[in-house]
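Run folding on both entries below.
>entry_1
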Amino acid sequence: MDQFWEGIKNWILGLFGADLMARAIQEGNPIPVQAWLNLFYSSITFIFGLFVAYKFFYLILGVFGKSRRYPEAPATNRYCFLLPARNEELVIANLIDSIRAMDYPQELIDIIVVADNCDEDDKTAQIAREKGAFVVERQDPEHRTKGFGLQYALKEYAKTHDLEKDYFAYIVMDADNVVSTSFLRKYNNCMVHSGFDEAVAYRNAKNLPENWISAMCGMNVYVNVVTGQRARSMLNTNQQVYGTSCCFRSYLLKDGWNWTGLTEDLDIQTDLAGRGYHLGYCEEAVFYEEEPTKVGIFIRQQMRWTKGNIMSFNRYGWPLMKSFFKKPAWGKYDMYWQIFPFSLYSFYFTLTYQVASLVLFFVLGDHGYSWQSFFIWIGTMLGGIYVTNLLNDLLTVIREWKRFHLSLPKTIIYIFLFPIYQLINLPISAVAAFMKVTWKHIDHHTVVDPKDLEAEEAQKQNK
């Protein structure tokens, strides 16, 4: 045991360069530059850690706590579903059918499908019309993001409807989604009793067992719940927004859709939080999405998210921080660190340390450089990312197991593989920062009956 604590002490001293300083002082030599370098980089890392240390508290709440529940509200509010879709003929009917199968009065539900830049032979618009949806077709190759499609659809719809008065709220769903039977009823309970201006629902995966890529991408969905969303629900603070299941009170869209970036969800959350709106979470409203199943699609998706994250942070980060200093609120502080591009920062911060260390080696040689300190620092950074995410994964699986659509043996394997998913994001972020990233369509193919997924979850809960 003494050796263990001695090793911990030496590791900490090496991380901050204190071992080099102590040795130099003891020998009467000048303190080597490598020691100051380690002290500088480790101190910056420690300060950042203090800024986001609250996330450990979030994790504890996410594992042991429960999200807010809302009493039944009269099913009298009118809702409009907004479904952007490009070449989604394989899955659009599945989504519309699931909406029509909900236990909410169907006469109070309207569906708008935006057939956005679809190919000539694609049947998305035709299928949606046959299913009774109001369909808007749009061709604008220069503006292909979902935000532009929704902006155009609401502009067209406003010609015959009052966007604010005709509906209580709008719900945006991606074409690859399906919703649970109680989805809108639970959402209505939440929006009536919570006073949220905007909210998101519980995101589950409908093709988790398809392959290792879909499993690891799906794992990230559950981790977000346990490490953030559930805690924010318990504390009633502003939530992370993702691009699907967003429920907007109609007054937010009375003038149309205003978020058209690569990652419109980040634009939404930082813009609305900065303007003082309350963004919430309804865990009882459950929907299922299709996860990527190919490496190329995964990388492309991550690059778009990273680039969009950077653009959103550059646009809204400073105004959000100024808003915090003007009128401090925990939700604004938390939101700032939600959109902070940690992957990009981590990669280049570590890279500059490596470059600076190697320069010292070639300039000063062994007199000002320590390979041991170098590997301690690099190993701590990468190992810290892996171990932190491994802990998050393990606790997430334990907490959310009843909602996992994956066998136990595969789940155990993916628990150890998933942190690699996070490490891969570091070089992807580095590349995306300097590339022109455009929105590209992702093919979807998984058709499921959400009642089957609900039945599988119910069976696990009974066991």
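>entry_2
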Amino acid sequence: MSMAVSPRLTDPEKARAFIARDLDALGFDAVGIAPADRIDRASTGLDRFLEAGWHGSMGWMAETRDRRADPKTLWPDARSIIMTAMNYGTGSGYDPLAALARRDRATISCYAHNRDYHDIIKGKLKQAAGRFAARTGADVKVFVDTAPVMEKPFAERAGLGWQGKHTNLVSRELGSWFFLGAIFTDMALPADEAETDHCGSCRACLDVCPTDAFPAPYRLDARRCISYLTIEHKGPVPHAFRQAIGNRVYGCDDCLAVCPWNKFAKAAREAKLKSRDDMQSPPLKDMLRLDDAAFRKRFVGSPVKRIGRARFLRNCLIAAGNSGQQMLIPHVVALLDDDDPLVRGAAIWALAQLAPERFVDEKMARLPAERDPDVVLEWNNAGDEDGD
């Protein structure tokens, strides 16, 4: 018995409808189409960002500048970009701003409360792209934050939302809690109308930033951003920002959480992106006890794992120093002997904040034997917020 073969989709409208239905069935919350053309305004904004040095240590942004400006430098045959959004909202059960008041607890950015979105979204996009290619005969390529694709400008052009004053994408239906992914294709599909800016006179996201990371609306100095400082920045956190970090140990949601458009946000549909209870405000004392094996086990499959134990404990120690919690002192002191100098240095600062007299005693005992220059600097500058 011969199997029925579906007719090939050559009509662009029908092909578009096919991929939209498939992506919806896979759990994506919004789909839009943009032409694979250069976006000059986005390219100019990127140039301004890089020339100001606001990318900090993220040298890959400068290295890929030319490829980011024009999608055809990635794939000359690309004609359309299918942009997708998948919601990761926590619903009403968790408030990231309220979590900041729980000083004995760690605050982890909502996007990292479950599995790494790269793996989940890329897998689903590959399924949809494969079926689309089989039905249309078109070539496809899938990107989820894995190539120099200017996802936010293309999502704006595809009608999924607009880049708000905090530079993140905002949707009238999803708020700000969603991930983006892209399918490039050499098939010309009907494009959506670009979304327009609906921020108006609101500046809630700019005013809430604890480190003044926005030099102006729609401009971000990543070097001052807590997400950058806790995730991308590899060395000691500059003293000027340590107190402002509060209990944020991985990322920061403040500018997203205050956006009025989030009143329309809903809880994630995808089970692997739903916020896990054990990732919502875990006790700092538990985080400070993690050795390397325990860290890897605790955050297996999580985005947190990629920064490694040393950076994570650096962040947790800064949170401990800001906590005012005397019960954390033994955990901090134990980390003064950690093998990693990044951890030792952060423990020094935390101890100086929590127990100044104990700090003096430990400094006298430990400084003469310390050989790492950054750690020596911490011993000598601890408590001096202008030390950097």
